[in-house]
Every structure is written in C-alpha cells, then in structure tokens.
Amino acid sequence: MPTRIKPVTIGQSPDPLIDGILKFSLGGFGDTQMFGVLARRPELLKRVAALFGYFLGGEGGLLEPDLLEIVRLRGAHLNACTYCATVRLIPVQEKVKAKESAIGVTDISGMSKAEALKKVAPVQFDQLTPRQAVAVELVDKLVTDPHAVDDAFYARLKEQFSEEEIIDLVVASSLFTLAGSFNTVVRLDTDQGGAYPGVLNYETQPSEAFALA
User: Fold this and answer.
1) What sign does the dihedral 27-31-64-43 (CA atoms) show?
2) Is the pLDDT of residue 213 over 50?
3) What is the phi/psi pair of residue 112, to 5°?
4) CATH code of the domain in which 150 resides
5) Which of 33, 146, 151, 173 has the fewest Cβ atoms nearer than 10 Å?
6) How many separate helices (H) and strands (E) can be counted in the chain?
C-alpha cells in the first residue's frame, strides 16, 4: 500500500532548502519518502534532517558513519521497521554489507516488534570490531530496556568510547528509533520506481505481548 501520508517530491516545494534536503535523502539513502512526508511540515523536516546530516552525512558527528549504519540497521530489525530495514546509507553500503549477517539482518517485513525480538538472530560479536560490538550491544539494550545499561556495561562502553562519543551514540540510536516509529505509523513505502522494491509489508495487528491494559 502507498504511504499513508502523501509525501512531497523533489521539485514540488517552493522552498529550495526543502528541495535540497530531499536530494540529500536521495543521495544518502537512495530514497526520499521519509523526508518527503516530513516535508509536509517543512520546519520540522529542517531540524530532523540537520540531525541526520550531523550523524550520517559527515557534518560534524564524532562517530564514523559506518558504525552508526550498523547501529541503525540492528535497531531497525529489532524495532521491526520495514522501511528502515530496507534502505541503506549509500556512501557506506559496501563497507557495512560484510557485517550485515553478523548483526542479524534478515527479512522482518510483516513482523511485529514482539516477533522481531524473538526471530532476529543474535549478534555475532566476534565478527565485529570492539567498538562495533559494544555499540550494537548498547542498541539491543536501548530497544528492549534502557535500564539494562548497568554500571558494568557502562564501564565496558567507556573502554571504547569517550563520554562525548557516548552522547552521540545514544542520541543517534534514539533518533533512529524515533524514525522507525514514525515510519511504521505512516506505513512508509519506498519511492515508486526507485532503488528499492515497493509495497513494503508491515504488521497490522497489535502484539498481545506489548498490549497495555
């Protein structure tokens, strides 16, 4: 099914900055749909795009984009965001591809979050660098229960990252989860005739395991 909220496409906005952001999205992710929907709220898009540019576009973030892409993909699968799990950060795609099996990349389309948490494969930590391994472990904890980041794990985190880098890592991981929640709610599809297969499949029934009384 098409995205629930019709996105703005390249060339439609009278604001050249919005058009530039959509082109940035196409070059970075090979798709414009998420930023296109957010372009319905232009000032919001400008702020969200600035964060994505900071973390993934080489515009000032402290962490290497390929590490953050590994983190993004792991979180996408655990959160069962079909769109997030489908698109790739184009500039580091080939570099990250060799790590995809190690972080449990699989077809999670049509899964609920509860199903994804059960079915996504455990991380093969020996296939990752020490920084990548602890960053992915952090994402698993953030997705399932942030309280699990206890003192012992935090000490391990500090062995690989400075405190400033930890701030970036937690904020970036939270940004990716925010995007995943947004994309799932609007049932984000990919650009028609674009780089990815269209008509993405999302679970449509609430999970009993996560239902609130």
Assistant:
1) positive
2) no
3) -80, 170
4) 1.20.1290.10
5) 151
6) 10, 0
